[in-house]
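Hi support team,

I've been running sequence recovery on a batch of backbones for a student project. Most finish fine, but this one hangs at about 90% for roughly twenty minutes before it completes. I'm not sure whether the input is malformed or the queue is just slow. I've pasted the structure tokens below so you can try to reproduce it. Let me know if you need the job ID as well.

Thanks,
M.K.
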């Protein structure tokens, strides 16, 4: 006769909470949306609603507060979310350990990088990392910034390498390098003969800015308002190649990191420092706060900390010599 269950075992067996219901609840809390949770879980929105209702019925408590403008966990829901994330993380880590034991050489890292970082920085960094860790497989997502953030939050990417604006409480940013933004002008521009310039002179000319540089755009407008300096005109471009083609054709001037200033340049573009405003870009690694990096992912992050600033400095130096 099999041994009788202890009281605690009986309680666990009769509790019968479905793991998929817990995972769906976590998705709702993290994405703050039933429809987005449905996309993550690859099910319909009514299925997400049904799973939440089943979980609330089993627990006998309300887990979410819902209004037309806000979706948030209740006090009980927040406790469940925290405990569930912790428990599932432990389970996922154990599965990874089993997988690494039975499938040696199967380590894989999913990395997101914006187009210019992917094209200019990552190839040499990948090469150096692969020489050190030949068994690790790396897949690179060459995507726009917001798409990278979405993949990190959904778990499709392990990390992102981006210029980060610190615009999400669900992400953790690890600084890699800082690069000064320079004023870049056409070869025949009136400012081309100068090495330095103040903001007042910059704003006399039409500005071309990458639309990703929201923080920079806000800073320029703020500093212009402080000095009572109107912006003559401001045009945004999504792609760096488009922006530089517009600049080379004489449509305006721009602000770029020095490593990008000479991209696809037939003739070296003049660059100037803006002396009365601090203009920089912060590059770093972005990961989801809720995830603990695997050993392979952490090794790549450590390698980035060793190599990224050196690679950036070398790239900037090479562009200055063009």
């Amino acid at each position: 006769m099999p041994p009788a269950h202890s009281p605690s075992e009986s309680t666990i067996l009769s509790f019968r909470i479905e793991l998929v219901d817990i995972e769906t609840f976590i998705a709702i809390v993290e994405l703050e949306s039933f429809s987005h949770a449905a996309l993550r879980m690859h099910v319909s929105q009514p299925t997400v609603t049904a799973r939440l209702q089943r979980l609330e019925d089993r627990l006998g408590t309300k887990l979410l507060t819902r209004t037309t403008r806000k979706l948030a966990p209740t006090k009980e829901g927040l406790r469940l979310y925290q405990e569930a994330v912790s428990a599932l993380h432990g389970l996922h880590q154990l599965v990874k350990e089993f997988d690494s034991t039975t499938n040696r050489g199967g380590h894989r890292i999913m990395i997101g990088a914006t187009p210019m970082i992917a094209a200019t920085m990552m190839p040499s960094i990948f090469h150096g990392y692969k020489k050190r860790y030949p068994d690790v497989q790396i897949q690179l997502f060459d995507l726009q910034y917001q798409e990278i953030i979405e993949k990190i939050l959904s778990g499709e990417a392990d990390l992102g390498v981006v210029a980060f604006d610190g615009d999400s409480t669900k992400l953790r940013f690890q600084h890699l390098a800082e690069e000064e933004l320079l004023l870049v002008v056409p070869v025949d521009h009136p400012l081309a003969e100068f090495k330095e310039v103040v903001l007042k002179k910059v704003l006399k000319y039409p500005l071309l800015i990458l639309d990703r540089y929201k923080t920079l755009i806000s800073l320029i407008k703020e500093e212009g308002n402080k000095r009572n300096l109107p912006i003559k005109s401001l045009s945004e471009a999504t792609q760096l190649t488009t922006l530089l083609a517009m600049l080379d054709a004489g449509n305006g001037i721009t602000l770029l990191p020095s490593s990008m200033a000479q991209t696809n340049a037939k003739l070296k573009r003049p660059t100037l420092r803006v002396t009365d405003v601090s203009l920089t870009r912060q590059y770093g690694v972005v990961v989801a706060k809720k995830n603990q990096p695997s050993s392979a992912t952490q090794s790549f992050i450590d390698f980035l900390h060793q190599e990224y600033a050196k690679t950036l400095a070398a790239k900037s130096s090479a562009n200055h010599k063009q």
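--
Follow-up from support: It reproduced on our side and the slowdown came from queue contention, not your input. The first helix runs from residue 7 to 15. No action needed from you.
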